[in-house]
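Before surveying the methods themselves, let us examine one representative protein, pairing a chain with its fold in token form.
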Amino acid sequence: MLVEVIDESKKTSFIIKVDRAVEEFFKSLPFSTVLNVWKDEVYFTAPIKLELISKTYKIELGKVYYWPPDSAICLFYGVSEPYTPVTYLGEFVGPLTSLRIVEDGDEGKVAVHELDHSLSKATNLLKSHGYDVGTPLVDGIRVVAASKYVSGLRLGFTLYVEPYGYYLESEELYRHSDDYVHMALAHRVKDVLSDCEFLRFDIDEDGYAVLTIGVNDLRELEEGLRELELKYPQVIDVIRPLPAY
């Protein structure tokens, strides 16, 4: 089941996919909470008490965990690890780096998430290609967030549906600058993408390197997705000497 965590003051939200077997969590919905940031982690307290059935000491990026001492739902987006053991609950939907916008003390509302019907053509296409899909808020506007594993790598992106077409922006890869090392790296990534019709190397508004697709229609978007899934592992191989974020 999809669950949305909404920060109404910022008009933003993020989506998690929680195992339906966690009945106590779903019975608690909706509820209000406070979002906390600790190192590279966002967590919030939920009005539930779950047993630590299968505990783990090391997390996997993109997965959602429960931390018993604070009855907290935990989302990790960087290199930090949990303070003490956690248990797996589900998956984060979309690019993990979108969690950077959360600030310690933000207020959130947690509720069942329903996909926005106005975005159904795009969400149906992505679901048919095996993506987990949600329609979170970005600056008060519903967008499409999607993620899945490609060649063992987690691929996440945001898709903006505009009157003139579709714009896809990948997970942030690294912070770009105009020094020699980063410019050389950018050219290496562009070389990897040189035979792509739709997939491009770009930077986002915060100066992070990303992969983008800008197309007119769903047919071109589907072709761009094929290029993205093919090239993403190759791009990661090129940038691995650098930190992920």
